[in-house]
Amino acid sequence: MENTEAESDILRSVHALLRELDGHHPAFQNERGMLRWTLHKKTDRNPGNSTILAKILVKELERAERGDYRHYIIPLLHTLMYTLIKAPCFSDDLYERIYDFCKKLLTLPKPYCTIGLDYAFRLKTERMAPGVLYQRMVISEQSLRSDPYPYQEKVFIFADPDLLSKAVCNALVTDTKAAQMYQSPRSCMCYVIMHAMKVALDDDCDIYNLQRILQDKPTEEIEHFFRQVVTAVECTGNEISADRSQHVERLKKVYDVVLSSSEAGDTSPEGLQDIPLPNPNISFHLWTDEDQLWKELVLFVRPLSQTCEQDCLSQELDNFEIQDIVTGCECCEQTRFSVLSTDSGIERDLPPVGEEPPPHCSAEVEHSRLQRKGGIKKKASPLETMAYLQASCNGPGVKHFGKMHAKSGSNMESMSPLQRLHTARIVVLGDDRILGRLAQAFHSLRKRETRRVFLTPRLNLQFYYVPVVEGQQSTWPTEEHAMPSQIDLCEVAGYLGRGDPWYENNINTLCHMIPKLATMPSSPSKHLVTNTFIIDVMSYYIRMGIQPVCFQVYSVKIFFSDTAQEPAEDVFVTELSVKVQDYNPTRDLVLARKKTVLEGPGADIAAKYRKVLLSSRGKELGVSLRSTGLVMKAIQPDEAEDLVCLNVYITEVIKTSNLSGRSFSFMTNKIRMHSIKVSSMDQKTFTLCLDKDFRRTYRNVVSVEVSPCLEPSYCLQKTRTMQFSMHGSEDVGLAKYMPKSLLLPINTFAGIIQ
């Protein structure tokens, strides 16, 4: 009877989830975005419901595939896989049905085939070594030391204190700390041990007594059992033709040793015991320093020792070119020894196997010969450097002109031949303005890596975006006819939500929910929601958001009215706004003008641009007109119109004459282009704003050039090849196969569903 009631309750929740995907929002608007979280919380409170939920989700997936309800497939599949990773037990028949469904997705276009292939591989590995997905996730997210699986991950949440209120920032810091209060390495190792035992041994595992015994064990013994369990599971997972019975036998031996080391306790209570999946290792940062992102990544890849951290931190991070040997204090210095080598380098001169070394080679000399002392590492050759850079920026495609603007469904790191043991997951909170800062930081990081490779061969970099807005803001003060009249601070979030309904339902709903929860009066129910909901949703997004949407970054070169001032260079990813400044001419210039001339508002500008054609070729055009300003938008209003281009809206001033005199009207012209150069033809100057961020405003501008930003490693390689090439500007050598444009990848659940 209880199972029937639980099944009916879960079925109603799944159907409510599907109605929300159809655009039928729940009766209470506050429940938007909480249906998926509530569904998984039901299985957390009662692990026995996991099997019921999995069966219902499989039925709904098969029904969606038969009825061609494709917009159900990816949300249901993500929900099912998340349940599978957390749940301790599933039947072989259920695994087979899920695996067969994932194979059917291979016949569908992207992103269905991409996600189906990824999950099919995961399911196959899980069936060979039950519990391996849970184990690997906990080990990497908590950075537990494990030789069989040495991967480490860390989540960095960046928030701009100028964009979010102090209350919101404090609430996020509190929630992050509260979510990790009980996530010690010891408890996480216990979770891995218990989950592996329960999945492999099923009913033969007394999970209640196992948990009690592990709690009483010293940390050294838990680490010993943890290493044994991880070795057993990874050994089975890495075998080509693994024998499941041997896997069960390995873990049964460890299980018997653990139970035999303590007296038997009380009988276990009925039902499954909850083995939680701990939240990832999350650090919260207020983004106040331009180089803060790069510094945090360096510390993650190569943390300093505790004894010299305070003395070396400033010197280590302020050094723009990272050195291969740490200096600055005695505990970091290493003495360099010179050891005489007697190895001729010829194979026949090697001693026979088993022969003792010559008498003059003492044990100390032999040890020093085999152990590398602290030396200066040889700088990589240009070819090796470019190989690293090519592996780091092998985005989806090489030639991007005329291709999709927001490319999705291709993992930028999957093609890399390098084995990177660290993964940094960067989550930015805010609106389009913080994405502009992210594009700046990413461009700066790529330039540093081009000059000297350090992070590229060691680190996987993943970006995530959670929109958070506190009230709507208008543009800079302007007249009614100026463009635009209102700023949409969440253009990127809207674009991602239109392309991915699961992102819209789970992440875009946080836009106004996070400020609302942060400013709610303190109460027990409020803490119950915020301390789990926000971090849980972010953890789900980080774990299941595996499909990047790549946005073109645009470079800007700005020329000023003062010829002595050097031109400025910057980048943007969403929008560039240009407004004609108020012009106050000198008295002599006013007297020189004819009084009969009525200039009117705006300024005379000349624009040279490369227009977008359907043939993917550019056509050079030019235009001169009088305008009050223009706006260049890189985010397309419709994801179906997704060419790599800028939509430029120019507000033109049109002079008209009538009986009452001369008057002016305004008309907005839209042009689609790859690149553009705008110049002032008279004495008037522009005010320029990047990514809707008034902190990135340039004044007294007379000319601006905008074009797609090139990948710094491509520019370096092309410069090198052009020195010895007779082909002019044509790409030759390695540059021909490198990505040309710099793309900013933002991970979502499905990418862009066409």
TrEMBL record:
One of its GO terms (biological process) is G protein-coupled receptor signaling pathway. InterPro entries: PIK3R5/6 (IPR019522). GO terms for molecular function: 1-phosphatidylinositol-3-kinase regulator activity; kinase activity. GO terms for cellular component: phosphatidylinositol 3-kinase complex, class IB. It comes from the Eukaryota. It holds the Pfam family PI3K_1B_p101. PANTHER family: PHOSPHATIDYLINOSITOL 3-KINASE REGULATORY SUBUNIT (PTHR15593), PHOSPHOINOSITIDE 3-KINASE REGULATORY SUBUNIT 6 (PTHR15593:SF1). This is Phosphoinositide 3-kinase regulatory subunit 6.
